[in-house]
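User: Second chain of the day. Same drill as before.
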Amino acid sequence: MAETKDNKQVMKEEKFNFDYVKLGLKCGIEIHQQLETSKLFCNCPSLLRDDEPDIIVNRELRAVVGETGEIDAAAKHEMEFGKKFVYQAYSDTTCLVELDEEPPHDMNRDALDVALQVVLLLKAMPVDEVQIMRKTVVDGSNTTGFQRTALIATNGIIETSVGNVRIANISLEEDAAKIIGKDADKVIYRLDRLGIPLIEIGTEPDIKTPEQCKETAEKIGMFLRSTERVKRGLGTIRQDVNVSVNEGTRIEIKGAQDLKLLPKYVDYEILRQLSLLEIKKELIKRQHHIHEELVDITNLLADSESKIIKSTISKNGKILAIKLEGFFGLIGKEVQLNRRLGTEFSDYAKTKAGVGGIFHSDELPNYGITQTEVDKIKKELAVGEKDAFVLVADEKEKSEKALKAVIDRAKYCVKGVPKEVRKANPDATTSFMRPMPGAARMYPETDALPVMVEIEKVKIPELISSKAKKYEELGLSEDLATMMSKSSWKTDFESFVQKYNHVKPLFIADVMLVSLKEIKSRLSLDVGGITRNELSEVFNLLNEKKISKEAVFEILTAVAKGKTVKESAKRFETMDEKQVEEKIKEIIAQNKSANEKTIMGFVMKELRGKADGKMINEIVRKLVG
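Assistant: Same format as last time:
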């Protein structure tokens, strides 16, 4: 914790002065990356679609016991919602495997080979035989009610600027279906994403600072991209961050997509755990008690002007309340930026009961509930000066379920930090998703055969960082070399450098990465039609000195407008030095009173792209001076 500032001030300024060693920070990260192959257990393409599906399937799922003989806590939590699931699919890119109407095919060896390339890059120890497992998932994102996953390797290593981070496991699994829409009792999924191969890389809790967390994720991402077989774009790579501090517990932050925010996610979770531990200590000092009796105060608020209260009563709903002894001032305590203990209570109520939220005494009077009504509630519940209350307004069953969820969460306040999976929010805060899953969710897949690993046949790809250094040696700047190492043009770049030895590699890279982008952004032209062959034609003309460097941009602009390289290059055929000098003499003779700068303007307008700019400049200075 910051030594000179309280939590609220730290959060407001968003500056953290934590002593991570003293706090006992433990942090690990899990990377999930989609692979650019066909699906993992069938031959369907890994094609994401937005057009209208032509198959609709309705399902319900239930959790079953795992190898331990128990139902997993997270699966049980999801099953309690009783939700129905609607699956959308496409007859031309979705098969019976995704619909769970046919057993899985053999594991995609292409995807396995890509995963094994990553294993070698991370210096991990591959397994001898890949055993496919089932991981219970009852939120509807898998039609089977489980996710197929397989351990590929263990004991890898990542080198960072502040020390090594061990890789605990590398797995290959099928991605889940994507949510299209949902309401209180139904979720709509689309099956185009289901089954896309997903490589999962999990580290040990060796990460000691938030910045090291970001660096580790960046390096793993670089190793993955080095295979050149991973998908790119939003949603194709996801990070889950695990965080704990002394006296706290491991929390999994799910779905952190923005690398820049990773340090904040870690810091905010540290802050949250420290705040919850402070609340625990304060409750232990107080005469705290959680009353589990649900009190119906509907009649008490019959004349309330609160919109939510009035709406609930008009629909024959119930306003139920509970008393929390010793909780005064603590429910309203900030535990993250703009998130309070009351928000945590509300998350549980929303997630477990589907209500819109809760009211608590630390925020009242508010939301149309008056001080007079607050006083009535306190009297009805016998709330003292150090006590608090929580109320919910909804259908009776939902209100009861919501308050029971609040009671469960309130009980944990005296224990400290509950074990949870939390959703990553865009502002780097987190919200409750479900309890932390346990070992009960895993059991063997009986419909798919084990796969022998032939690691000796796997080729180690060149790292992006190695390519960048090689490009720097060719004369590219560090930034341009890094850009090229990540670019889809890199193979063509290397080929052109070898083929056109009279053109500097720096110029070739600049055309590919800068000039094409400028034509697109500044001139609003589509450069997608400028192919490898057309670039090759241009560089060949330049290599043979048939055009000048200055002509390249103009020719490519013409090509973007629909012309061919050959017809575009005609008006830019180079002139030799003698021809250039004769032309400049003509321009000077026609503009005898003009100064050097004006002459240069006339000359460049006439000769741009037909001769080297440096040569033109030297001749003008010689003749005019």
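The chain has four domains: 7-283, 289-413, 464-572, 577-624.

User: Great, on to the next one.
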